[in-house]
Specification:
Number of strands of chain A: 0
Oligomer: heterodimer
Number of helices of chain A: 6
Low-confidence stretches of chain A: none
Helix content of chain A: over 70%
Largest sheet of chain B: 7 strands, parallel
CATH superfamily of the largest domain in chain B: Glycogen Phosphorylase B
Low-confidence stretches of chain B: 378-383
Distance between the termini of chain A: 79 Å
CATH architecture of the largest domain in chain B: 3-Layer(aba) Sandwich
Structural class of chain A: mainly alpha
Shape of chain A: rod-shaped
Mean pLDDT of chain B: 85
């Protein structure tokens, strides 16, 4: 009689232990995914800023546009990566600076300059596309983590430990004039 | 880059997903990448060198079509071995919620995973029933691609989050350079119409075309309908009026080259599909071959046809409207020429060179700074243990 009770208790304990270890492993994997996606986004934002700086200095733009771009790009390169909301503002500013500097006339001139302008412009477009991708993948990962961390079991057992609740990264990264087919 | 691609459907039978996988793999190989494709296949099936068979493929009704899938513990073990042997930088799964190798690979892989969703009608009941089981493994996917806006909407509704839309690719040049065949070209008195696809599947639209034929033949008695694709002609003929059946010529399954020639030669290509299409790659192939396209006004088709600029559309499942459109196009060669030219131009946007660049950007983004793919020891060893146990019992 007692024997079977002990067996049931052991089975329950094993089940609980499995749930905890499985839940912790799942969360851990999700957090790793978020961290990875965040470092990718960070790297892509740096690349975009560098490409913008190159564009500013390529000589095919007017001085005012060049100055605007150089300013926005160096703000981005010097941004404090720990402070997400100020970084979001800085990166949106960079997108806007690109949008302003790359009017139809500037685009026409850059594309006509096959030696310097066109390749630099192409690099900026590619860098921006990768920022868009990296940001979307990060936000997907963040959404997944937040959903799992809302589960009552996960909250009750504090399976997330001391890991910070990740935030989605919200910036304006649309540069329609650099997309293909335009 | 070392890329592992997983196709859930067998290569024995042609289909949109398999073609996508094959073309993507071949394009990436031509760009100098190492690519290995894992797909269901019987052990004796001849396969391209870059394809690894995952074991016996069983025909299963899934998502309205009969698909050849592969599953079970033996397949799972093979998937694990493929992942380990491949030392991939990224694994690219197609249709990860199909009961086949893709979902097995999803279980077996740790590391950068990209998943492409092709279908616009995920079977929500199966999905919901298996949700608790699938959810944690779906969380392993680092980047989701949808082949169309419809497929993307399905992903957002059923799985949450978002997906990047990268359309299907076509080797435009292969179709553009197709040889015309005299016997498939129309004359003013005997114009030709082509239908392609598995004719016995109602959603491919053969019943709609059959119902439209009598009216078309009343206006243009000489019309020839060339039907290419697998299926039993008699089962189609018996549902037609005798006169309509006499106007049809059944070509059976055709080679890729013949398909391109057929599309290039005929006066009009008709796609009367009634639904279940999330993309419609055949329309792009037809446009590449400079065919005049007439398609049902499914949202996916409308997008490919640029809202009707690159091909004409008729009301879905409406034989009367189909007949009207066929007749007016066959009687108007300048209009056909105009649509064919616009279609050829439109097709360029879907060329593999353009599309694969976007896929590569996704790979680079997920691979950046990440460790390469490894097999998740957990699931692998669990299956391996089971198998060992089974073998030992069998041997004793």
């Amino acid at each position: 009689m007692d024997y079977s009770r002990i067996l049931v208790a052991i089975a329950l304990a094993v089940l609980v232990a499995w749930y905890i270890s499985y839940g912790a492993a799942r969360l851990d994997r999700l957090h790793t995914r978020v961290e990875g996606a965040l470092s990718v986004l960070d790297a892509q934002l740096v690349r975009r800023a560098e490409a913008t700086l190159e564009l500013a200095n390529c000589g095919a733009l007017d001085a005012a546009s060049a100055l605007l771009l150089a300013g926005a790009a160096s703000d981005s390169l010097e941004a404090d990566t720990a402070d997400q909301s100020s970084r979001e503002a800085i990166e949106s500013d960079l997108t806007q600076a690109l949008e302003l500097a790359l009017g139809p006339e500037a685009l026409r001139r850059l594309r006509a300059d096959e030696g310097v302008g066109a390749p630099v412009l192409q690099r900026v477009g590619a860098a921006n596309q990768r920022v868009q991708l990296a940001r979307r993948f990060l936000n997907d990962a963040v959404t997944d983590v937040r959903r799992v961390r809302r589960k009552p079991g996960v909250r009750l057992l504090r399976l997330a430990g001391h890991a910070e609740l990740p935030q989605t990264f919200e910036i304006d990264d649309e540069l329609p004039m650099l997309e293909r087919g335009t | 880059m070392r890329i592992g691609i997983v196709s859930p459907y067998s290569f024995d039978v042609p289909g949109g997903v398999q073609l996508h996988v094959r073309d993507l793999a071949e394009h990436l190989i031509s760009q100098g990448h190492y690519v290995s494709v894992l797909a269901p296949a019987d052990d004796d099936t001849p396969l391209p060198v870059y394809v690894v068979g995952s074991g016996r493929a069983v025909p299963v009704r899934y998502n309205g079509s009969v698909a050849r899938l592969s599953f079970g513990p033996l397949t799972a073990a093979r998937v694990g071995r493929w992942v380990e042997a491949g030392r991939f930088d990224v694994v690219h799964l197609h249709e990860p919620v199909t009961p086949s190798v893709s979902v097995l690979a999803l279980w077996a892989v740790e590391g950068p995973i990209v998943a492409t969703f092709h279908t616009s009608n995920l079977r929500s009941r199966a999905m919901q029933a298996a949700y608790p089981l699938l959810r944690p493994s779906l969380e392993k996917i680092s980047a989701r691609i949808a082949v169309s806006e419809d497929a993307r909407r399905t992903v957002t509704t059923h799985l949450g989050g978002d997906a990047v839309v990268i359309p299907n690719g076509v080797f435009v040049e292969r179709f553009a350079s197709a040889v015309h065949r005299r016997d498939w070209e129309g004359t003013p008195a005997r114009p030709t119409i082509a239908f392609l696809g598995r004719m016995e599947e109602p959603r491919k639209g053969m019943p709609v075309l059959s119902a439209a034929l009598p009216q078309i033949l009343r206006e243009i008695p000489g019309v020839r309908v060339l039907i290419a694709g697998p299926g039993d002609p008699d089962s189609i003929r018996e549902k037609m009026t005798p006169r309509a059946a006499a106007a049809c010529e059944f070509l059976g399954s055709v080679s890729d080259a013949d398909k391109a020639s057929l599309l290039a030669s005929v006066d009009l290509y008709v796609a009367p599909n009634t639904g279940g299409e999330s993309f419609g790659i055949i329309l792009i192939e037809a446009m590449s071959a400079r065919a005049t396209v007439l398609a049902s006004d499914l949202p996916a088709f409308a997008r490919v046809l640029h809202g009707g600029n690159a091909g004409e559309m008729f009301r879905n499942e409406d034989p009367v409207d189909l007949a009207r459109a066929v007749v007016s196009l066959l009687l108007d060669p300048p209009r056909r020429e105009e649509l064919a030219a616009a279609g050829r131009e439109r097709a360029n946007a879907f060329d593999w060179s353009v599309v694969a660049e976007d896929v590569m950007a996704v790979y680079e983004t997920v691979v950046f700074g990440a460790a390469s793919v490894r097999s998740s020891g957990e699931t692998d060893s669990r299956w391996a243990r089971l198998l060992r146990a089974g073998r030992n019992n069998g041997g004793a």
